[in-house]
Design brief:
Layout (H helix, E strand, L loop, with lengths): L4 H12 L25 H4 L6 E8 L16 H10 L1 E9 L1 H14 L5 E4 L1 H9 L7 H7 L2 H8 L9 E2 L2 E2 L2 E2 L10 E5 H6 L8 H13 L11 E3 L13 H5 L8 E4 L2 E4 L4 H15 L12 H9 L3 E6 L4 H11 L5 E4 L11 E3 L6 E4 L8 H12 L6 H7 L23 H15 L7 H16 L5 H7 L4 H12 E3 L8 H22 L6 H26 L1
Parallel strand pairs: 1-2, 8-11, 13-15
Antiparallel strand pairs: 3-14, 4-5, 6-14, 7-11, 7-12, 9-10
Length: about 550
């Protein structure tokens, strides 16, 4: 069994490559027809001579590891940029991920702006309004390689996310929009033990949560298990409440069309119905009584300790945190299901064309095309490569799976269609036992799934639960074909939104937590009134003005 531990670890890392950041849409129908351009020789295009200096900023969390003698300032990426592109990349500062946005905002406010850097959508809009970043529209046309353009244009909403007043003001770090759609995850082994059928409705799901609390699914003779896991953050990638609300046809934190205009999902009547159900579940002990003080890390501990049976989360949850359950309890198996509905109308999973990161160029930087030279190197040489030596060099190797080298640079993009294409190709290979045509990632996933079924390697359930025949990605395919609710507002934050939305979000979260814990349901109506008065009415007008244009 131990022979599979390293491949599984690296597959987990590889799997994480394809959902880290993004601004994207639901357009994923042509998943089998996209091929990258031919290999691209950077030096043939011409490197800077003499070399140029490019100052950036960087976040590096505690999980990032380096080879001996290397660090964030000296690694394969900084050396490659210098040797192949003539770009001497240095960092004004490096901080932990949790401190990045605050540090970056302070740096921008001081006027000491890096040459090229990654920012969020709020800072992006402020930089534009203050005329601090370059219009890269023409540079994109002349300096982005065909492969880079293909990746950025594969999703129809990617570039519009960073286009203001008809000008391309930044590069969206791409991914698949459906990657953010919530799914329902349930302990399949617990359902089998208690002889429970898969849920066909939200009523069924709430009953499963009750039984998981009251019928001792972990078999320790004590009623110490949790039904539905919820994090105090409410809207996270796991243990979030988006999926639960979606089961009631409510769509928190996004804008969708209703009666000919865009409306904010959280304040719609359907959200009140979802809150009523959550309140009842909390009252009966079918939700973790401590959810109001448990962040996502604490929820992960609950999962690891075999005390949780249900959560709403995204497709990649088996990689994190659900694998913790199986790691400690080998028979644990989490299965993904579509979001069930409260009535006869099918539920739709919500997702957004949200910008996970935007690469911008400082106004006045003399070499704005440098950003595309770096992105071209990634897209043309690495993103689609099956060359083991090259991937080991720039991404990481099985010999040292803790060292994930792509995290050393912010200048990379992910192909939006990769998730669904990988699923289809692996599914076909498993059915035919023919691996011809699989790329490197697909082949590795095929091998691990085969190890689960052919050799009983239980650790391989992670790939089965995601890319297997009934895995989470199979549900994403259905969502992409019309089973989702897309956030229709994907522009830069509006004026009032920039000023007031953060405070409204805080009030929104406080209201939700209070109602779940027992505050009268009428508090929802009072909040809606307050929301409009405190800026929501103005924001709604701005959003609809944007939509109309």
């Amino acid at each position: 069994m131990s022979t599979y531990k390293k491949p599984i670890v690296i597959i987990l890392l590889i799997g994480l490559l394809f959902f880290t950041y993004g601004c994207k849409s639901s357009s994923t129908e042509d998943t089998d027809n996209t091929e990258p351009a031919a290999g691209y020789d950077v030096t043939a295009e011409g490197k800077y001579s003499p070399a140029i200096n490019l100052v950036s900023v960087k976040s590096v969390d505690a999980t990032v590891k380096f080879l001996e003698g290397e660090d964030i300032h000296d690694n394969i990426w900084t050396r490659t940029y210098a040797e192949k592109l003539g770009i001497n990349l240095s960092y004004m500062w490096v901080v932990d991920h949790s401190q990045y946005q605050q540090k970056l905002t302070a740096t921008v406010m001081s006027g000491d702006i890096p040459d090229v850097f990654v920012c969020d959508s709020l800072l992006f809009k402020m930089l534009y309004d203050s005329d601090l970043i370059e219009d890269i529209s023409e540079i994109y046309e002349t300096h982005a390689s065909e492969t880079t353009k293909m990746v950025l244009e594969q999703d129809e909403l990617a570039l519009p996310c960073t286009t203001i007043d008809g000008k391309l003001m930044g590069v969206p770090i791409t991914d698949a929009s459906i990657a953010g759609a919530p799914l329902l995850w349930i302990r399949q082994d617990w359902m089998q033990k208690l002889n429970i059928d898969p849920p066909e409705s939200m009523q069924d799901l709430m009953e499963i949560s009750r039984r998981f609390v009251e019928e001792d699914p972990d078999g320790n003779g004590v009623k110490d298990t949790i039904g539905l896991a919820v994090s105090k953050e409410l809207w996270g990638a796991y243990a979030g409440l988006q999926g639960f609300f979606n089961g009631f046809h409510a769509y928190p934190r996004i804008w969708y069309e209703k009666d000919g205009e865009l409306v904010y999902g959280t304040i719609q009547p359907e959200s009140k119905q979802a809150l009523a159900a959550l309140q009842e579940m909390y009252k009966n002990g079918h939700i973790d009584k401590e959810f109001g003080v448990k962040d996502s890390n604490k929820v992960a501990e609950t999962i690891a300790n075999n005390k949780c049976g249900i959560e709403f989360g995204v497709w990649w949850n088996p990689y994190s945190p659900l694998y913790l359950s199986q790691a400690n309890y080998p028979d644990a198996y989490w299965q993904a299901y579509p979001i069930p509905s409260i009535d006869d109308t099918p539920a739709k999973s919500q997702y957004s064309a949200a910008v996970g990161g935007i690469i911008v160029v400082r106004k006045g930087y003399p070499y704005p095309e440098a950003v595309f030279k770096m992105l071209n190197f990634w897209c043309d040489n690495i993103l689609f490569s099956n060359d083991k030596e090259l991937r080991d060099t720039y991404l990481g190797s099985l010999d040292n799976p803790d060292v994930v080298k792509y995290k050393y640079t912010d200048f990379h993009l992910w192909e939006p269609n990769a998730i669904l294409r990988t699923y289809e190709n692996v599914k076909k290979a498993l059915a035919t036992r023919n691996t011809d045509g699989l790329n490197h990632d697909e082949w590795q996933r095929y091998q691990i799934i085969s190890a689960y079924f052919d050799q009983g390697i239980k650790e391989a359930w992670v790939e089965v639960a995601t890319y297997g025949d009934n895995g989470s990605v199979s549900i994403l395919k259905d969502i992409a074909q019309g089973g989702g609710m897309v956030n229709r507002f994907y522009g830069a934050p509006t004026k009032v939104m920039s000023e007031k939305m953060a405070a409204l979000h805080t009030k929104e979260d406080e209201m939700i937590i209070r109602i779940i814990m027992g505050e009268p349901l009428e508090s929802f109506d009072a909040f809606v009134e307050e929301w409009y008065k405190l800026g929501g009415e103005e924001i709604t007008k701005e959003v609809n003005d944007w939509w109309g244009n």
